[in-house]
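ok, trying the design again with the full structure, not the truncated one.
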């Protein structure tokens, strides 16, 4: 073990392939070697470093890369799949010189979703300018990640919430996970810390008490955010979606119900995404349990969110969700009742349990949004637009702020051109700024101990 720049690293180590990466044809191996040496290599390197940097205490993706400038990963072809050689890897990912098993599994998920997936794109199977093909592409990535379970009960609960939450909120997410685990539910989150880790941790205890040995703890992430939100150690199925839009679609098509905990702009983005979909007339009869919850100390957070949603989109959209404060058991009971309704609906309409093909998602929620300054300033944030259209634009505004906070592209944009400017209807901008300032005041923009510098300006 070496010490470079006061950081403990493992100078050199090689690991053998696991999972699906052991079952590769020689043609697939050759394609991966070509891709692995090309433009995809740097992205693969960054994502591997994010996974290995598992005990990170910060959410600055650029800082992680700068801290380990000598880290490198090389693909080695073998008849039994691809092996990986690491140089100067973070030592916290190893025990007695051997990589921790869960981290090793996640590393090969990165290989699968970044390198192997890149070899498939050129075959022309999907036209990603078409909604139908985007959904099928999302399905294919999830299938390759082996998260679908044919015939399993519809009991996968998606948990959204911030990585920057306090101890009381974190304990509450664990309590929710525990009560869900006792009732046989499985957990899917964004894979990181805070509200993404807590429900999984609680569910492991609930599953243990019920002697459930095959608990599913699915983490869905994306290349742009994985360095800021490294996979937590409980995740046993990691899938890296190409961008936030496909990641969000994966959540709502894979999960059977959604619980939202306190969070920041990323959580607000998720809420607007789901509301925009469920508010669509084509989905009006689709059961989809949607609960926002937190401890009593977080009641004001949900009051602000609810107030903003009602002002921006109308009181009627509040019928799409329920807010429950400080009652973990009630949340679990309500969610399980909702899952029963989902099962009944999908059985009656012959919709698969493992992927919600029947949910209509408009293309405005599917096409990637690039948060340039021009695109952020050009969002049409006016209340006279249809609910789903305004929700889509608001979702993009929050997405851009997330990018400016923690994603490499957004952070670089802010460094080069200054803060994003967000324009729109004066009254709506007043409410939006009030919500964003409350996130800052409650320290929900960055991890505790970090100093937050706003990356946006709401023009009123």
């Amino acid at each position: 073990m070496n010490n470079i720049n006061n950081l403990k690293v493992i100078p050199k180590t090689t690991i053998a392939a696991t999972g699906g990466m052991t079952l590769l044809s020689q043609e697939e191996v050759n394609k991966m070697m070509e891709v692995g040496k090309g433009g995809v290599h740097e992205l693969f390197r960054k994502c591997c470093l994010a996974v290995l940097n598992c005990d990170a205490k910060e959410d600055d993706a650029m800082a992680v890369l700068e801290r380990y400038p000598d880290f490198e990963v090389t693909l080695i072809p073998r008849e039994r799949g691809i092996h990986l050689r690491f140089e100067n890897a973070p030592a916290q990912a190893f025990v007695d010189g051997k990589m921790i098993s869960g981290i090793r599994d996640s590393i090969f998920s990165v290989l699968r979703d970044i390198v192997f997936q890149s070899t498939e794109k050129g075959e022309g199977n999907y036209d990603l300018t078409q909604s139908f093909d985007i959904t099928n592409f999302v399905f294919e990535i999830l299938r390759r990640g082996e998260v679908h379970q044919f015939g399993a009960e519809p009991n996968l609960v998606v948990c959204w919430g911030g990585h920057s939450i306090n101890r009381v909120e974190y304990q509450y997410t664990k309590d929710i996970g525990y009560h869900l685990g006792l009732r046989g539910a499985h957990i899917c989150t964004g894979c990181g810390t805070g509200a993404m880790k807590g429900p999984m941790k609680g569910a492991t205890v609930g599953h243990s008490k019920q002697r459930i040995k095959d608990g599913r703890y699915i983490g869905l992430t994306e290349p742009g955010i994985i360095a800021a939100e490294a996979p937590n150690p409980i995740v046993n199925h990691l899938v890296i979606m190409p961008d936030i839009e496909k990641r969000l679609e994966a959540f709502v098509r894979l999960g059977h119900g959604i619980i939202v905990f306190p969070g920041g702009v990323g959580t607000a983005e998720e809420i607007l995404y789901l509301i925009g979909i469920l508010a669509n007339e084509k989905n009006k009869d689709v059961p989809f349990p949607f609960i926002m919850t937190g401890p009593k100390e977080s009641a004001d957070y949900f009051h602000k969110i609810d107030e903003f949603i009602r002002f921006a989109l109308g009181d009627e959209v509040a019928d799409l969700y329920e807010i429950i404060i400080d009652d973990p058991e009630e949340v679990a009971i309500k969610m399980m009742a909702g899952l029963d309704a989902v099962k009944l609906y999908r059985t009656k309409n012959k919709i698969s349990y493992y992927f919600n093909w029947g949910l209509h998602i408009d293309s405005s929620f599917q096409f990637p949004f690039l948060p340039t300054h021009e695109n952020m300033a050009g969002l049409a944030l006016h209340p006279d637009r249809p609910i789903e259209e305004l929700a889509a634009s608001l979702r993009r505004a929050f997405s851009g702020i997330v990018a400016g906070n923690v994603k490499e592209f957004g952070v670089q944009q802010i460094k080069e051109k200054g803060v994003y400017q967000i324009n729109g209807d004066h009254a709506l901008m007043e409410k939006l700024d009030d919500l964003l300032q409350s996130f800052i005041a409650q320290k929900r923009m960055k991890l505790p101990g970090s100093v937050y510098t706003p990356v946006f300006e709401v023009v009123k």
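Keeping the full-length input from now on. The chain has a mean pLDDT of 90.
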